[in-house]
Inverse folding.
C-alpha cells in the first residue's frame, strides 16, 4: 500500500523516516497504512465540538485545530459588540463542512497520511 506525505502529498519511499521532498518526519506507528483512528468518532467530534477544533486535534491536524479554537475564543470575546457572531458562524460552517467530508470520505486520512478506520 502506497503511503503519502501528509505535509506535501508526495509519495514516500518504502520504510522512509523522512519525506524526501519536504523533510517532514514520517510516523511508523501504523498497521498496513491504517491509523486505527475512527472516522465515525472524528465525525461525532466535528458535529458536537467542531467549532473548538477537537476533531482536528484528534486526527493530528493541530494547526487547523488551533485556528478553529482561536476563532471560536475570539468570537466569544467579540460577541459583546456583535462582530463575534461572524467568527462563530464561520467556525460553525467550517466544522459542519468537515463533518460532511468525514462522513462522505473527503477526509479519509489522519495527519500522518494513514487511513481512518
Amino acid at each position: 500500500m502506497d503511503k503519502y506525505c501528509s505535509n506535501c502529498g508526495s509519495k514516500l519511499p518504502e520504510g522512509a523516516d523522512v519525506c524526501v521532498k519536504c523533510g517532514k518526519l514520517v510516523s511508523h506507528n501504523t498497521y498496513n497504512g491504517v491509523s486505527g483512528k475512527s472516522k465515525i468518532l472524528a465525525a461525532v467530534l466535528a458535529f458536537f465540538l467542531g467549532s473548538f477544533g477537537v476533531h482536528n486535534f484528534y486526527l493530528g491536524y493541530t494547526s487547523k485545530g488551533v485556528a478553529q479554537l482561536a476563532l471560536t475564543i475570539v468570537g466569544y470575546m467579540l460577541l459583546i459588540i456583535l462582530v463575534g457572531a461572524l467568527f462563530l458562524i464561520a467556525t460553525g460552517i467550517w466544522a459542519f463542512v468537515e463533518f460532511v467530508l468525514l462522513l462522505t470520505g473527503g477526509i479519509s486520512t489522519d495527519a500522518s497520511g494513514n487511513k481512518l478506520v
The chain has a mean pLDDT of 87.
